[in-house]
Design brief:
Elements: H1 5-20, E1 28-33, E2 46-56, E3 62-71, E4 76-77, H2 82-85, E5 86-88, E6 97-104, E7 116-126, E8 129-140, E9 144-157, E10 162-163, E11 171-175, E12 179-185, E13 203-208, E14 211-212, E15 217-218, E16 226-229, E17 235-242, E18 245-246, E19 249-250, E20 255-257, E21 261-268, E22 270-272, H3 281-289, H4 322-330, E23 338-339
Parallel strand pairs: 12-21, 19-23
Antiparallel strand pairs: 1-2, 2-8, 3-7, 3-9, 4-8, 5-8, 6-7, 9-10, 9-11, 12-16, 13-14, 13-15, 13-17, 17-19, 17-20, 18-22
C-alpha cells in the first residue's frame, strides 16, 4: 500500500525539527586559577593571578563564593593590607560585592599547612556565565618555584544551597634564577693587535637536552667575556659556548635551577677552522691556504658582538700569519666540545 504523500511530509518535518532542536548542556560549575604572570619573574617584582568561576545551567543560579587560596610563603608574600592583595573584578558577579578579604596564617587555613587568602564574594545569581571574580597580587621574596592552590571552596546558589563544582590543580611560578659565567678565547686579544680584536665575543647557549632554551646569549661588553641568562625556568641544563675557529666548550655535569648558578670560566681552544670539532691537518691546511693575507676584517670588535670573524684569523689581529698557525698546531689532535674549565685547558 502506498503511503499518502501528506504523511511522508509530516514525518520529514518532524525529523528535521528534531535535528535542529537545541540540546541543553548538562549543568556544571567550576573554579579555575589563571596562570601566574609574569612567569618567570625577578625577585622583588609582583606576580598576579585571577580566580575564574564558570557555571552552565545552574538553576536558580550561583550568587555566592567562599574561597581559600593557599600560597607558599617561602617564596612569595602578599601585600600587608588585604585590600592590596585582593582586587575585585566584575566579570562574574557584575559589580562584585566582596564581603571578606583577609590574609590568614596556616593554622587558620584549611589543612593547616600553608597560609592563605580568604575571599567571600556575592552578587546577582548567574545561571550560565564565566568570568573572573578577583585578582590576587603577591610579591616575589626568594628565588624558587612558588605554587598557589585552592585549599577549599564553596559555591552557593540563590536559595543558599551549595553547588557542586570542580577545582583547579595548583598553579606555579619560577622566580629569579640566573645562570652566569665567563668565556675566554685563546690568543685574543692579539698583541700587537692592529685589527682591534676582542678578548672574548662568543655565543653561549643554555641547553635542555639537545634543545636550546630561549635566545642565544651573545654577550658584551666583549672586554669581560661574561654572560648571564636571566630568570631561567626550573629544570636541568648544560651551558655550551662556541665561536668560529675554535673548539666549543660545554659543562659536563647538569646544573639544576633553582637556585641561581655561577658556572665559572672556560677557555675556547683555537684551531678548529672547518667546524668539525677536531683540530688536524685539514685545519692547518686551510690556514696555510690563506697564509699571508692581511686586512682581514675583524667584525667581533663591534659593541654588540653579533658578527663572527674569519675563522682562520684565529687571534683576530686582522692577519693570517704564523700566530694563527701556532695556535692551531699547539692544539693538534684536540677534539671538542672540551670540558668547561678555566684557562689552562689549551696548554700542552
Amino acid at each position: 500500500m502506498n503511503t499518502p504523500r501528506w504523511m511522508v511530509m509530516i514525518v520529514l518535518a518532524l525529523a528535521l525539527a528534531i535535528l535542529v532542536m537545541p540540546v541543553s548542556a548538562a549543568p556544571s560549575a567550576s573554579i579555575t586559577i589563571t596562570p601566574p604572570l609574569p612567569n618567570p619573574v625577578p625577585i622583588g617584582s609582583e606576580v598576579s593571578l585571577a580566580l575564574v568561576i564558570t557555571v552552565t545551567e545552574i538553576t536558580p543560579g550561583v550568587s555566592g563564593a567562599d574561597i581559600y587560596l593557599g600560597y607558599d610563603d617561602k617564596f612569595v608574600a602578599p601585600p600587608t593590607s588585604p585590600n592590596s592583595v585582593v582586587e575585585a573584578l566584575p566579570d562574574f558577579f557584575g559589580v562584585s560585592d566582596i564581603g571578606i578579604k583577609e590574609i590568614l596564617p596556616a593554622a587558620q587555613c584549611p589543612g593547616g599547612t600553608s597560609p592563605c587568602v580568604h575571599l567571600v564574594a556575592a552578587g546577582p545569581a548567574q545561571v550560565t556565565h564565566s568570568g573572573a571574580v578577583a585578582r590576587f597580587h603577591f610579591q616575589i621574596i626568594k628565588e624558587g618555584e612558588a605554587c598557589f592552590k585552592l585549599l577549599a571552596s564553596t559555591l552557593a546558589n540563590k536559595d543558599g544551597f551549595p553547588v557542586s563544582h570542580t577545582s583547579p590543580d595548583p598553579k606555579c611560578i619560577n622566580s629569579g634564577s640566573d645562570v652566569s659565567g665567563t668565556v675566554l678565547r685563546q690568543g685574543t686579544p692579539a698583541n700587537p693587535n692592529p685589527g682591534g680584536g676582542t678578548l672574548a665575543c662568543s655565543e653561549v647557549k643554555l641547553l635542555s637536552g639537545s634543545m636550546t632554551v630561549g635566545p642565544v646569549s651573545t654577550y658584551f661588553p666583549p672586554e669581560s667575556g661574561t654572560f648571564t641568562f636571566k630568570n631561567v625556568p626550573g629544570g636541568t641544563y648544560k651551558v655550551h659556548a662556541e665561536y668560529p675557529g675554535y673548539l666549543a666548550s660545554e659543562t659536563r655535569t647538569l646544573i639544576t635551577i633553582p637556585p641561581s648558578q655561577e658556572v665559572g670560566t672556560t677557555e675556547l681552544c683555537g684551531g678548529d677552522v672547518n667546524f668539525d670539532y677536531k683540530i688536524n691537518i685539514l685545519d692547518i691546511g686551510t690556514i696555510i691556504g690563506k697564509f699571508g693575507k692581511t686586512g682581514v676584517e675583524v667584525r667581533s670588535d663591534a659593541p654588540d658582538c653579533t658578527d663572527p670573524d674569519e675563522p682562520v684569523d684565529i687571534n683576530d689581529d686582522g692577519n693570517v700569519n704564523i700566530g694563527d698557525v701556532a695556535i692551531a698546531a699547539g692544539n693538534w689532535g684536540r677534539t671538542g666540545s672540551t670540558p668547561w674549565q678555566p684557562t689552562g685547558i689549551c696548554d700542552p
